Amino acid sequence: MAERARYLYAITRNVDPSPLGSTPALSGGRLDVVEHRGLTAVVSDVDLREFGQEGLRENLERLEWLEKVARGHDTVVQAVASLGPTAPLRLATICLDDEGVRRRLDEWHDALHVVLDRVEGRMEWSVKAFADPVQAGVDTSGVPEPAQGGGAAYLQRKKSEQTAREHREADAARVAGEIHDALAASSSASRRLPAQDPQLTGHTGTMTLNGAYLVDLDEVAEFEATFHRLQKEHPDAALALQGPWPPYSFAVLEQ
Amino acid sequence: MSVQPTDASPVGQIALVDLLDRLLGTGVVLAGDVVISLAGVDLVQVRLHALITTIRADMVEPR
Description:
A: 9 helices, B: mainly alpha, flat
């Protein structure tokens, strides 16, 4: 018989979990809740062959499996976030039984309440900025070609290209910093995540800002207005706004 | 003309790369009974990004 374990999706509190009955769990089962000391963990049964140490090590390498689990995890987290304050757990957090789940809720009780206080009534927005690849082309039209294009002239041209590129990168980084500061001032909390590789984003420009912003649901209009103002002020930054998402980037436990 | 991301998605739907950044890089980290070490997760992320890159490279038309 297959050994079962409990997959943890998210922690919430003071919610009626019955709407979760219509949300599909991973492995095709149903969602359950484990309640302990005012906290509610949303969990479901998974097979330890798939989600045990050995299975995970193999499965995490398979993009198809990972995408399925990430999407399934996100579907549940979104459903929980529509009910109340939600602290999403990292992918593939597995306890052997409900007692194990309760032990974690016990151990992290205070920190989890702090996280839920922080995200209550708030959602996450993502803003990305890109350095326009068109500008990355070096404009050398103003530089007169020497009659005799010797090695020294070549090196000189290379050097001025390099200097121009460094200036553009510094400018793009400064603009990204300004954009982030303005958005941070219009949100409850903010984080800069590592920039994503151009090949992952499908965007030809270099990502200069991968910002996450926790926005109070009462202040969404103000945040969006700030974004649109910045978009007008910095047309070259190719600003992209996405959300609302569950507060993934802000459910960090303080140690 | 600026190039739009190839995975322009409907509102609320998170691009896989954004989702993985968050599900592996942020979020509440509780040590469960099945332990994948942090280093292990970081490695997974690196491999994954390489993997997605490969898939993307096939999808994105050469410019």
